[in-house]
Amino acid sequence: MNEKSAVVIGVGNQKGGVGKTSNCIHIAAALGTRGFHCLIIDLDPAAGATKHLGIPVDRFAGTLELLTTNDSIENLAVTESMPEGVHLVPSRPQLSEIDVRLSKYVDRTRILERPIAEARRKYDFIFLDTGPSAAFTTTVAAYSTAEWFLLSAFPHPLSLSGLSEVFSDIADVRRYRNPDLEILGVVFTSVDRRATRLHSQLDAAVSAALPGRRFENSISQAVILPDVSGVGKTLFQLSNWHSIPTAQQYLRLSVELEWRVRNREAFLAGTLGTIDYAALGLHDEFGALRCELLSVNQ
Ligand SMILES: Nc1ncnc2c1ncn2[C@@H]1O[C@H](COP(=O)(O)OP(=O)(O)OP(=O)(O)O)[C@@H](O)[C@H]1O
Ligand SMILES: [Mg+2]
User: What architecture is domain 7-280?
Assistant: First the structure.
């Protein structure tokens, strides 16, 4: 692998069960399919990403060792049976003991710095999948280390209260700890395309709170997502993924995410141009099947 310089993206929302992990692993797998190298660090003691990716918890050392010893990403990342281009540092329930394992002299906000410095050289994208609490030591460390945060929400009126808590936490982190942290966007998932009134209200609320940060691409409600996670796979590991509309939605979302990350200054200044998906061969989420767009080799 050539020397790289990854971007670090925390994925979260303090609410539980709002698609954080499904988005994290599918965006990473979509980028992997397009030729990028992605690392997912599972920072949740409930080990959502580990389970969704079919890795038995307790079989491997992982995040707990990464954050409490000098063990390397190279040793701890699982590379077998993963989506193409994706590696995973797995979690397990003992991660909840991290505060006991770390001595009182350790600054908990900095525990991801050493491993992230190693991983930046080896990957294009590093995703930090956080659990549903801002109080977890690992969530605090993710806020303190990432340069982007990707928020995930189900389209429900209650989502807005969860999102506003994250916005205010991120504002605090930026003020006191990590001025480089920016909100990459809010992804709405499990969207029922018939509930147009609810969507326009949520769109309006998110756009007012965070102008320009809602992702144009959202993910439909799709029973195939719980089905594949139940068997420990992503959609991109199915032989017919090209013809699965939800996989196409994640592919387009991965293009939009990359577009924002690559053009950080313009995005943050609100001057980022629109993406011509048709020129990239992605006509709509049900349409074109080409995936070699915007490959890293171009
Ligand atoms: N677009 C979707 N359509 C239908 N079901 C979905 C969709 N996205 C996610 N789900 C399902 O919703 C449930 C919660 O999703 P997920 O585990 O990704 O959420 P989470 O926010 O990471 O949860 P936690 O807070 O427990 O970590 C899972 O069963 C998942 O398969
Ligand atoms: Mg999760």
Answer: 3-Layer(aba) Sandwich (3.40)
Question: Is the pLDDT confidence value at 77 over 90?
Answer: yes
Nearest ligand to the CA atom of 247: 1
Strands 7-12 and 125-129: parallel
Domains of the chain by residue range: 7-280
Is residue 218 in contact with ligand 1, taking CB distance under 6 Å?
no
17 lines ligand 1 (CB under 6 A): yes
Q: What is the pTM of this model?
A: 0.94
Gap from CA of 13 to ligand 2 centroid (Å): 9
Ligand closest to Cα of 154 equals 1
Instruction: Please report, for residues 35, 89, 159, 209, 226, the alpha-carbon distance to residue 162 in angstroms, rounded to integers and kept in the order given.
Output: 34, 27, 5, 13, 23
What is the residue with the minimal CA distance to atom 11 of ligand 1?
226
pLDDT-derived band at 2 (thresholds 50, 70, 90) equals low
> Which phi and psi angles does 212 have, rounded to 5°?
80, 0
CA of 5 from ligand 1 middle (Å) equals: 30
10 Å Cβ neighbour count for 149?
25
